[in-house]
């Protein structure tokens, strides 16, 4: 350019005048230029926003930690506005000594900090029959990953003294849905947590303030928010959320139930329909997320030709069990069309299946537990679309 780039030669306002003072935002907000970093609802999916879901903007994020304000929300009766001073956690059923804890009581148990993903069993559920929603926010955004601070459930249960007949635990929420799920006692005594903080601050109301159950690697529905009661029992309770919901109706009319562990899964977050390639050909950073309820991710492969050829991607950042993993695949894009896919492998050797392989086993009746390989079509103009190839 004759006069040089005005972004260099002109003095900008932010360079000329002082900015906002330290009292401007006691709780900070992102730059107003980051317009993509918002949760979004798909209004036609549910009848009412009070029993609904919004989605994590995966395409606008990097690394493995989800910022608190961007964690997808799923609730069956809206966000309960719980006063922590009035909140109680009760333990009853097959215990020696039924107990009631205040929040203060809970915070006197030894604490742990753990990073885990939470994935709703319905994540990618709208894609069972074919490509439907155009953006990884909508196809895969019912997942988040934060650091929880809390206490191990086993310490709290030990205080009440479990009877030997106690094989299951019912967790109940204090919201108007009073959501309840049966959890195998083995899991409850292994790594479940009662969490009161996420990413260093108190849980957000949307995520169950003041206290939620953390059930690592298991489907999100079991992570009861606004946790108010734990009942020990000798068999599952057959609640709505584990019978009519969160079960998978197979082609033969039988249903898979108690599908607790979220299987190995991955998705390319950029480029993706909401994050097209804007810079033309040349160096391209392909980035994505992988996770498994079975532990750590061992490998992620990326294909640019719809699964004909695979190249191992580079996993960067912490590789923690049952947490999101970030992967990158860098290459020189020649401007030709691509069919981008990622395929994750976990520590138990499970390999993420193609959608067709999954349908061959599970049919197409379910809206839950879809961990099939996602395909993005990249056009020569850099635009990206949700497609399927067979
Ligand atoms: N807990 C209560 N009390 N009420 C609810 O509606 N929704 C469940 C679970 N725990 C729910 C709940 C579902 S279906 C999911 S996927 C997760 O919470 C979502 O957690 P999040 O809102 O923190 O993303
Ligand atoms: Co859910």
Question: Can you offer a commentary on this structure?
Answer:
The longest helix has 8 residues, at 153-160. The protein is 10% helix and 32% strand. The protein has helices at 6-9, 13-16, 103-106, 136-140, 153-160, 185-190, 355-362; strands spanning 40-41, 52-55, 74-75, 88-93, 99-102, 111-119, 143-152, 168-173, 180-184, 193-198, 201-202, 212-214, 227-233, 248-249, 255-256, 265-270, 282-291, 297-303, 311-312, 314-316, 325-333, 338-346, 375-378, 384-387. The model has no long low-confidence stretch (mean pLDDT 96). It has 390 residues and is mainly β. A hairpin with a 2-residue loop joins strand 10 and strand 11. The protein folds into 2 domains: 74-256, Oxidoreductase, molybdopterin-binding domain (Sulfite Oxidase, Chain A, domain 2, Alpha-Beta Complex); 265-387, Immunoglobulin-like, CATH 2.60.40. Strands 5-4-13-8-9 form a 5-stranded mixed beta sheet. Strands 6, 7, 10, 11 and 12 form a 5-stranded antiparallel beta sheet that branches. A 5-stranded antiparallel beta sheet has the order 19-18-22-23-24, with no helix packed on it. The protein contains 7 helices and 24 strands. The chain is globular and about 80 Å long. The structure holds ligand MTE and cobalt (II) ion. Ligand MTE is lined by residues 71-76, 118, 120, 144, 173, 175, 177, 179, 206-207, 220-221, 223-226. Residues 74, 120-122, 220-221 line the site of cobalt (II) ion (CO).
């Amino acid at each position: 350019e004759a006069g040089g780039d005005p972004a260099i030669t002109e003095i900008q306002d932010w360079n000329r005048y002082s900015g906002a003072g330290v009292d401007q935002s006691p709780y900070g907000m992102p730059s107003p230029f980051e317009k993509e970093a918002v949760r979004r609802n798909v209004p036609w999916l549910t009848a009412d926003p009070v029993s609904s879901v919004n989605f994590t903007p995966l395409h606008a994020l990097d690394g493995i930690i989800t910022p608190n304000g961007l964690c997808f929300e799923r609730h069956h009766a809206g966000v309960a506005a719980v006063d922590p001073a009035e909140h109680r956690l009760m333990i009853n059923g097959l215990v020696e000594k039924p107990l009631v804890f205040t929040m203060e009581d809970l915070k006197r148990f030894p604490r742990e900090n753990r990073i885990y993903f939470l994935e709703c069993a319905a994540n990618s559920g709208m894609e069972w029959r074919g490509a439907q929603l155009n953006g990884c926010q909508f196809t895969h955004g019912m997942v988040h990953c934060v650091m929880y601070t809390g206490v191990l459930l086993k310490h709290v249960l030990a205080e009440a003294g479990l009877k030997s007949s106690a094989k299951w635990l019912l967790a109940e929420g204090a919201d108007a849905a009073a959501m309840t799920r049966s959890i195998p006692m083995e899991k409850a005594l292994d790594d479940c947590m009662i969490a009161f903080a996420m990413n260093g601050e108190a849980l957000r109301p949307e995520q169950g303030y003041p206290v939620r159950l953390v059930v690592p690697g298991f489907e999100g529905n079991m992570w009861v928010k606004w946790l108010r009661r734990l009942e020990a029992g000798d068999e599952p309770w057959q609640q709505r959320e584990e019978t009519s919901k969160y079960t998978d109706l197979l082609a033969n009319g039988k249903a898979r139930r108690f599908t607790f562990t979220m299987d190995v899964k991955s998705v390319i977050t950029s480029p993706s329909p909401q994050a097209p390639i804007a810079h033309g050909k040349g160096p391209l950073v392909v980035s994505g997320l992988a996770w498994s309820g079975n532990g750590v991710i061992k490998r992620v492969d990326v294909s640019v030709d719809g699964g004909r050829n695979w190249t191992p991607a580079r996993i960067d950042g912490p590789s923690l069990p049952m947490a999101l993993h970030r992967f990158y695949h860098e290459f020189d894009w020649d401007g030709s069309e691509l069919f981008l896919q990622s395929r994750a492998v976990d520590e138990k050797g499970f390999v993420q299946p193609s959608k067709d392989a999954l349908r061959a086993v599970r049919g197409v009746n379910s809206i839950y537990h879809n961990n099939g390989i996602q395909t993005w079509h990249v056009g020569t103009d850099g635009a990206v679309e949700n497609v399927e190839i067979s």
